[in-house]
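User: Good morning. I'm curious how zinc ion would be positioned relative to this chain. Could you predict the structure with it bound?
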Amino acid sequence: MTFQEGGNFDAGRVRRRGPGKGGVAVGGGIGGIAVVALILILNATGNPELANVVNQVAGGGGGGQQAESTLPACTAAEANSDRECRLEGTIESLDTYWAATVPTAFSQPGVLSFQKAVDTGCGSASSASGPFYCPPDKTIYLDVSFYDDLESQLGADDGPLAEEYVTAHEYGHHIQALTGVMDKADRQGTGADSDSVRTELQADCYAGLWVGAATETIDPDTGKPFLEPITQEQLQNALGAAAAVGDDHIQKQSGGGVNPDAFTHGTSAQRERWFTTGYEKGTLDACDTFAADTL
Ligand SMILES: [Zn+2]
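Assistant: Good morning! Here's the predicted structure, ligand included:
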């Protein structure tokens, strides 16, 4: 998927923070922590995405100063060639899509592109946690070097739509926070049928919704769609990314057997299926994973 010629994405929508000095700072109370990440790292076990962040909060020490700036404005050509510019363009398209889709609940999430480690409203996190959304500060945190890991460690082909899928998944968690899904779900539990898995699969479905609508989502600045029509190859690329972050795939990659009791995000097949459901059906109702008998 590529951005339409003529697109120009505003400076300031995405913040950027450089690497900290002197380690990561201690974050807020663990009791209130609620982090939803896309991915678990390879050496993690149990409920790793949460465990990682919690461990870092508990074990963190020292204070680091991180210089913060905002991304400059990006052209469509830059959004097609540069990861941070692609993030900025993708976020603007997501802003426009979701503002029209959930108009009464909508507000924009914060977006922070960081390197290596970051302090958040959910405590401190490192790039190893993968991209994540922090409900208390309503911000998406993403280190774009994650896409290299997606390719090198998890075997997904990197590509524009694979990256956009990741961003759109995290944005899906923001929508869940706005609409109350996040509050209702019991996200401490694990297992194939858990609320955690249903929450994650719904975010995949929301990503599919946006991709399905992206070529009809008009950039108010240009009057043209943000994105050119997507190709089958790009769609496969996004599905490959969804499959790469399936619990069963990650468990196998980390050298263990498949343990459904530890699932937090759903299997590769489920993640592909729910992304496709959103993409093909195009309605919020189609993404009600909490009502689904079969995930
Ligand atoms: Zn997620």
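The chain is about 40% helix and 10% strand. Confidence is low (pLDDT under 50) at residues 20-63.
Let me know if you'd like a different ligand tried.
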